Amino acid sequence: MEIEYIRQFALLARDCHFQSAADELFISQSALSKHIAALEKELGQKLFHRTTRQVELTDFGRAFLPYAEKIIGVINDCETNLIAPCQKAGPSLHVGVSPFVSVSRLMEGKMACLGTVPSIETMVFTETSSEQLRKGLKSGRFQLVIDGIGPMWEDAAFAAVPYMQDHLCALINRSHPLAQKETVSLHELKSLPYIHLFTETDASPFLSEPVLIADTVPQALRAAAEGRGFTVLPYARVKKHLPENVIALRLVPSPDLHFSAYYLRHVQRGEALNALLRYLLKSE
């Protein structure tokens, strides 16, 4: 199987939105559709249900996704730990990201860096928990990690540059009376069932026991679209992927969310990583 098609499948499975995935990959939507169709043909199974209004994983697609992620992880580890040490520093960059982070700035940075690093072709994203991001950065699996600011990153081994600020929003079905508002408080949401996006902790930071534990952002959004409750996520992470019948209301009061780009302080950095870090600092 074509590894790049598997990587594209995994990225598309994150939000189930062809145009947004194509934009992140910097390919056309028709090209992405052809690549997914080719992968489906080789597998002999459909990976997505596609209609004019919605895209969602098939049962086979959901079952295949963990295998795809394992394949990508093995390839990434092989490139990082076996191939890269035998070569000069290459243009590829392996980036770990929190599920709550938008990668739009990274993709903008990649395009900006093409002027100074013309050979940079591959930026591989792996979405995982903060603990796995920390371990992956220390082990060399990732050269760069995007995560929220927190105690686990207060380690002399890590350096960081600011990545972006964001704010929390409540995502709710448009038919709900609260959807007429521009902002909403946790007090107003208290009586509604809460859809919790699973992270490395099961503790809910909100007011009610979750009615549903969602494994992915698209699953949480689909549950909100079905009117099963509300979920709370950073706005930049979901603004391009909102189902038609879901609205994002700014949560108030809510502190600004700060995300940083972390890298190992005392490890020699490649040309691609240095160029991207310079972009993030310059465009802050």
Number of E strands: 13
Give the uncertain stretches in residue-range form.
none
Shape: globular
For the CA atoms, what is the radius of gyration?
19 Å
Structural class: alpha/beta
Task: Please report the first level of CATH classification, the CATH class of the largest domain.
Answer: Alpha Beta
Strand order of the main beta sheet, please?
Answer: 4-3-5-13-6
Explain what the structure shows.
With 284 residues, the protein is α/β, with parallel strands linked by helices. It has three domains: 1-85, Winged helix-like DNA-binding domain superfamily/Winged helix DNA-binding domain (Arc Repressor Mutant, subunit A), CATH 1.10.10; 88-165 and 256-284, 3-Layer(aba) Sandwich (D-Maltodextrin-Binding Protein, domain 2); 168-251, Periplasmic binding protein-like II (D-Maltodextrin-Binding Protein, domain 2), CATH 3.40.190.10. The chain has ten helices and 13 strands. The protein has helices at residues 3-15, 18-25, 29-43, 59-83, 104-113, 130-139, 186-189, 217-225, 235-238, 271-282; strands at residues 48-50, 55-57, 93-97, 123-127, 144-148, 158-166, 168-173, 183-184, 194-197, 210-214, 231-234, 246-251, 257-264. Helix 1 crosses helix 4 (59-83), helix 2 (18-25) packs across helix 3 (29-43) and helix 5 (104-113) packs across helix 10. The mean pLDDT is 83.
